[in-house]
Amino acid sequence: MQTIEEIEKIIEENMAVMLYFSAPTCNVCHALKPKLLDAITTNFKEFKITSIDVSIEQETAAHFNVFAIPTLLIFLDGREFIRKSRHMSVDEVVREIERPYNIMIS
C-alpha cells in the first residue's frame, strides 16, 4: 500500500506512469490486468506501474477521481494523459500511448 504522497512522487519522478485501480471482487480487473501489464512492459520499457486496490485505498481512489473499476490512468511527463474506465481494450491503450511515448523517449 502506498500513500497519496508516494504515488504523487512516483508520477513526478518518472517519465511514464500507469496507475491501475482495481479490487479483489472485480473479475474484469483480474482478467484485464495481466494482459495490460504484459503489453505495457513489452512495448514501453520506461513505464513505472502501480496497482491500487480501491477496497483498501478508497482515499487514494477519491484523490484521483476514480469511482469505477477497473480504471487505468496513464501519466506522461507528470501529466494525466489517458483515463480509461471499465471497457477498454489492451490494443486500444497501446495505440493511444505509442506515439506520444515514442516522441518523449526519442
From TrEMBL:
GO CC terms: cytosol
A GO term, aspect molecular function: protein-disulfide reductase activity
Domain Thioredoxin span(s) in chain numbering: 8-95
UniProt-listed SUPFAM superfamilies: Thioredoxin-like
One of the Pfam families matching this protein, by short name: Thioredoxin
GO biological process: cell redox homeostasis
Name of the protein described by the UniProt record: Thioredoxin family protein
Naturally occurring in which organism (per UniProt): Sulfurimonas paralvinellae
